[in-house]
Amino acid sequence: MNGLKAMTNDLKAFQDQYRPLLEQTMDQYLKDLNTRPLLRDAMAYSVDAGGKRIRPLIIMLVCDAFGREIDADVLACGSALEFIHTYSLIHDDLPEMDNDDLRRGKPTNHKVFGPAMAVLAGDGLLTTAFEIMSQTKLTAAVKTQLIADLALASGPQGMVNGQVGDIEGETKKLTLDQLKDVHAQKTGALLVYAFMAGGLLAGKQSAELALLKRIGANFGLAFQIYDDIMDVVSDTATMGKKTQKDQAEHKNTYPGLLGLEGAYQELAKVKKLVSSDLETLAKTTDCKIDLLAALLNYFKVGNKNEKRTN
Ligand code: GRG
Q1: Phi, psi of 41 (to 5 degrees)
Q2: CB neighbours of 93 closer than 8 A, spacing ≥ 6?
Q3: Closest CA to 278 of 201, 222, 203
Q4: Is 182's C-beta closer than 6 angstroms to any atom of ligand 1?
Q5: Is 91 touching ligand 1 by the criterion CB < 6 Å?
Q6: Dihedral angle at the C-alpha atoms of 67, 285, 152, 273, nearest 10 degrees?
Q7: Per-residue model confidence as pLDDT tens digits over 2-28
């Protein structure tokens, strides 16, 4: 077996081990809520609809790479981040935002529970995330930092601001730099948080955290370019959400600005930046980067023999 394939198999084994633990943890938080069954059901519907769980996976992979045990506090942090991500998808799918009927292969939250309950399910997931973080047994310093960073990444100085930039961009053509700025917040902020949170949970200091931040930012950019490419080349059944939507709605996207091949080239370039920073991390710290590097195989860069999947 070649090295790349072995690394990918190891990543799959890691996912198979920790994804069920994360999902049990999230389900337990939802079960323990002292709330009305209708609200719990609406929150659980979107959390349990699946998804790649890539943000919590990154937190766990970074912890593991630095030899930090994946314990209840790490699972709590991963759950909180996935709750916030899931809230953002529920709100993004609303008729007043992107107006989508399908998400994670299922009818969107508002299609099942109605728009009012979908708004409240999102509100519930967002606030529960911070309650979860407050209950961790981490030191006060680490806990406060993780909570403050989560608020910054998800709120009006992070993802919410990116969403506003996206909406403002609907009526004008953005330059490549403007598009990157919007996505750095809309998509990038939570992914940067995932890498940084892993480092903070592992007790890492500013030098490592600075590298993790840059890795997260470039990973986030690659993630968005790939998502835009998939909207063009993949299909609804594979992605679990409607595709071929961006061009029809005249959205600002990487294939729209650079052409499909240009977007693939940009993706390859950004992947190389992440790989190079991971190498630096391996050389300068005690980080074992193999599984993090394998994560980059998620982004297929256009070789016709590579299957393009969600
Ligand atoms: C409504 C405040 C607010 C924010 C919405 C995340 C977001 C911001 C909008 C979703 C629309 C979109 C295409 C965002 C780009 C980032 C992205 C690809 C999100 C989907 O995340 P995945 O692919 O989804 O990780 P799963 O279902 O796998 O978790």
Answers
A1: -60, -40
A2: 99, 100, 103, 108, 109, 110, 118
A3: 222
A4: no
A5: yes
A6: -120
A7: 676 777 789 999 999 999 999 999 999
Alpha-carbon 273 to chain mean position: 19
Q: Is the pTM of this model over 0.85?
A: yes
Which helix (H) or strand (E) is 127 found in, with range? helix 115-134
Can you tell me the distance from the alpha carbon of 21 to that of 290, in angstroms, rounded to the nearest whole number? 22
Residue 28, Cβ density class (10 Å: 0-12 exposed, 13-18 middle, ≥19 buried): exposed
Nearest CA to ligand 1 atom 20: 89
> What's the CA-to-centroid distance between 82 and ligand 1, angstroms?
11
| Residues in the chain, overall count | 310
C-alpha 94/C-alpha 112 separation (Å) is 12
Domains of the chain: 3-298 (1.10.600.10)
Q: How far apart are CA 53 and CA 33, in angstroms?
A: 22
Q: Whose CA is closest to atom 4 on ligand 1?
A: 88
Alpha-carbon distance values, 98 to 94, 163, 167, 272, 278 (Å): 6, 11, 9, 32, 35
pLDDT for 264-301, tens place per residue? 999 999 999 999 999 999 999 999 999 999 999 999 87
Compute the chain's Rg from CA coordinates.
19
Please name every residue paired with 107 in a beta bridge, in sequence order, or none if there are none.
102
